[in-house]
Amino acid sequence: MLLTDLKQKLDSFPHVNLLWGATPIVRAENLSKETGVELYIKRDDLTGLALGGNKTRKLEFIMGEALDKRCDTVITAGAVHSNHALQTAAAAKKLGLDAVLVLRGKEENKGNLLMDRIIDAEIRVYDAETSRELKSYMEEIADELAEKGKKPLIIPVGGSNPTGVLGYLKAAAEIVEQSNSMGLDFDYVVSPSSSGGTQTGILLGLKILKPKIKALGIGVGDPRDELLNDVATLIKETAKILNIDEGIVSRDELEACTIDGYGFGGYGTIVKEVIDLIKYIARQEGFYLDPVYTGKSFYGLMDMIRKQVIPQDSKVLFVHTGGLGGVFQYEDIIADML
Ligand SMILES: Cc1ncc(COP(=O)(O)O)c(C=O)c1O
């Protein structure tokens, strides 16, 4: 499919504008010299909504759907440090909708939770081990609101449904457009992967537009089988709404481009190896990674370069998906590790 055709197709879905514009692609000069690969960063941490990050892109289409369906409230879920929850609250408030955040974890007035409170989202915290378990609470709240005459929309954890994936298909188109105009031919596009929507959008978008580029999603501690199944389902469902071949990415391909081994004991663990890397990258390049998503996946990227799984002289684009709030959510633990 041509770039213009994909862009036209995406434009035909209800959407709103939340991004400032195309996010910059910046060459990481010092790291490129040090590693022997040409390393570029797609600064999706600078999307412009609240603290920025990947969810802004998904929310352009999800909020488009909410307005199209005349919803007055959005409900979403995640950990107390959830970047997605904060982005959702910010998008909702900006568009005049209410936001209910269904969260799990230790309730402390810092990081993203503090930002959620500043923006006046309704916050309900539950006792749950995983964010998946929060689905039934979201459904109960939706029923409760509907009884009161409200029209809520449930947004799944991470905004990872086919509508949200459209945002990262648009990002893939943006990457192709920018790399064309910069005269760059990327070999790899690498991103963190947790609820799978970001990985799915990039993978599908590049498969449609530039199949030669390898789109790697690096897991951040969720069980591999769950991640693979989530991404496989999202690929199928998104292909369906785009009216393209549902088998466009084979299971073998998906397995090969879903990288694990960099979860450091599980989702949300804060570990010294990653904090050391965050310090190092901040000092080398002047930008900050977060301890839950981008820090772990960047660690994976550096390790794959070191082990030459990604060969020398490759052109690599890392998608910085944001998450700065996580640094402040875990400031005490991080400070102890500095
Ligand atoms: C900063 C950040 N990076 C990466 C991810 C992972 O994206 P996805 O849930 O689309 O896999 C998330 C959200 O879960 C996030 O908040």
Task: Provide an overview of this structure.
With 338 residues, the chain is α/β, with parallel strands linked by helices. 48% of the residues lie in helices and 15% in strands. The chain is built from 14 helices and ten strands. It has helices at 3-11, 29-35, 55-68, 83-94, 111-118, 135-147, 162-182, 197-209, 224-242, 251-257, 272-285, 294-306, 325-329, 331-337; strands at residues 25-27, 38-43, 73-79, 98-104, 122-126, 152-155, 188-193, 214-219, 258-259, 315-320. The protein has a six-stranded mixed beta sheet with strand order 1-2-10-7-8-9, sandwiched between helices. A four-stranded parallel beta sheet has the order 5-4-3-6, sandwiched between helices. Strand 3 (73-79), helix 4 (83-94) and strand 4 form a beta-alpha-beta unit. The N and C termini lie far apart (48 Å). The structure holds pyridoxal-5'-phosphate.
Number of continuous helical runs: 14
Helix content: 40-55%
CATH topology of the largest domain: Rossmann fold
* Total domains: 2
Span between termini: 48 Å
What is the percentage of strand-forming residues? 15-25%
Name of the CATH class of the largest domain:
Alpha Beta
Please tell me what the overall shape is: globular
